[in-house]
Amino acid sequence: MVLGALGIVLSFIAGLVAGPVLGIGPGRQDLASPASAALAPTALPASTPGRTAVTTPSAKVSAPESDCKGVRDRRRTTAARGKPFVVCGIALINKEHRVSAAYRPKLVTVAVKASGVPDVRLQPVAATALTRLFRAAAKAGYTLVVRSSYRSYATQATWYATMDKNLTAPAGASEHQSGLAVDLAGIQAGRLVRGTALGSSRTGAWLLKHAADYGFILRYPTNQSKITGIAYEPWHFRYVGVKVAKGVNATKTKTLERYLEEG
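The structure corresponding to this sequence follows.
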């Protein structure tokens, strides 16, 4: 009787030891069970339109660039406006998306020809691109000149008080405060070609055709003031990077606002 009971106990212990080794114990699920099937990755048919097959649980798929477009400006306080509204990595500054006086980007002095200003100051990435743009223009036979670059909040307030309100933005709504925008002019036959005259000049035509190759866009195109809030300015160019610049130029309106809204 005792020996029989002892045999039962020994058999039970042997089962506990053998179970995990065989893969059927409580520490492991049967891979054919419904619970484990839910954890296993499912490969999508290759013919499924717009879908990508997943082969591992940790596979990561980068979100399309269009997913960042159309976001809302949720900066509600003056402190929050110490930084610009950024969409897809691009700072959008206009009358609807303003910055405060606290916004002061890092600037460097750019060694390019200027007229009417003591120096040219821009963010480093824009400074490098502008230098390349000026070199390309010179190689093509055109002489570019900077008429304005970075302007502080206070300086912009002074400009706005004395300038045409259709051609300038109030303090906090100007791209010049970003250090990414420049007002350009050209020198043709020894004369300074600036303002609206630049748009109908050979220099202006070259800029319109080649600025995007260096990351700049004509920020305020003709007949788009309802979108940009500013009338046509053939002299105002904004650095956004080559890819975005060409994307903006490919839109119907050629405006940064619409480019950043379209997804």
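Strands lie at 85-87, 90-92, 108-109, 121-122, 143-148, 181-188, 191-193, 216-220, 233-239.
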